[in-house]
Design goal:
single chain; alpha/beta; Nucleotidyltransferase, domain 5; 5-stranded mixed beta sheet; 6 helices; 30% strand
């Protein structure tokens, strides 16, 4: 996640956390969490990088998550709502009119076999009649449920799509959103306010990111000279990813801080696009 951030506003009151929402985005090697008020005022943001284990190697993901929940002071406080976006490799969009609970495991069957230790879940988006079907790690979900029995656990796709749906461009009719998070990319295409495409891919190089991004432009016959590309997550203007994309897409820019959150001036220096998915949890049902 790059630079570590620890931002606290003067409005943040530990004695009153029962009126706040806690949003957590745990990655494989780092974690970030965000606290906001009932009226969506930004109050607190903190990033953490997991420490190596006793043998110098990285701990297992579940061990890192358990350690964070046990040691981080604010995780012992009472919050009004708790939302967590767990990383997972796959997600698929299913229209509500075709969705049946008893068929839940079959929606990802065409993409992959259900991995050991994973279960199939579904989120409903706040806009449109569509569900996000995804794999959820049973062990990680169990750790979170034990600590926060009322927490809502989401697919990583859900807050990304929710935040992307609120973006505004000069044309607004057609745009593509690209999010980078821990060597994985997410892509969404909107036209006229409607979500037409979502997918996620692992990548090893800037060339991989360019390939998958331009594939969306090709698939939907989008003109890279006219259709904007909005970037979010772990990508900077100095990166190879940005430089390579900029050669092919004319209108390319970073996502701004979402307008569904009320920002304190303490957040002025925060890269507007970096925690795009985390902030999207404020839009999730």
């Amino acid at each position: 996640m790059g630079i570590d951030y620890h931002i606290t506003t003067s409005e943040f009151d530990k004695r009153n956390t029962s009126a706040y929402q806690l949003s957590i985005l745990p990655g494989m090697d780092s974690l970030v969490y965000f606290i906001s008020s009932a009226d969506d005022r930004a109050l607190f943001l903190k990033t953490l990088h997991y420490s190596p284990g006793t043998n110098g190697k990285a701990n297992a993901y579940a061990d890192n998550l358990s350690h964070f929940l046990e040691k981080e002071e604010l995780m012992g406080y009472l919050f009004r709502r708790i939302k967590v976006a767990l990383p997972q490799p796959l997600a698929a969009l299913v229209p509500n009119r075709l969705f049946q609970d008893e068929e839940l495991p079959t929606y990802l069957a065409a993409l992959t076999d259900l991995a050991e230790g994973e279960e199939t879940k579904a989120d409903e988006l706040s806009f449109g009649e569509v569900k996000v079907v995804f794999q959820q790690n049973v062990e990680a979900a169990g750790i979170l449920r034990k600590k926060f029995p009322t927490a809502h656990l989401y697919s990583m796709a859900t807050p990304f799509i929710e935040a992307a749906a609120t973006l505004k461009t000069d044309t607004r009719e057609n745009f593509v959103v690209l999010n980078i998070y821990e060597r994985r990319l997410q892509l969404a295409h909107f036209n006229g306010g409607k979500l037409l495409f979502y997918n996620s891919f692992p990548f090893n190089s800037a060339s991989d990111v360019m390939y998958y991004t331009l594939l969306v432009y090709e698939q939907f016959q989008l003109d890279p000279a006219k259709v904007p590309l909005i970037l979010s997550g772990e990508v900077m203007e100095s990166s190879d990813i940005y430089k390579m994309l900029y050669r092919y897409v004319v209108d390319i820019h970073f996502a701004e801080l979402p307008d569904f959150i009320n920002w304190n001036k303490k957040f002025n220096d925060l890269p507007s696009h970096q925690f795009f998915t985390l902030f999207g949890l404020n839009k999730c049902r």
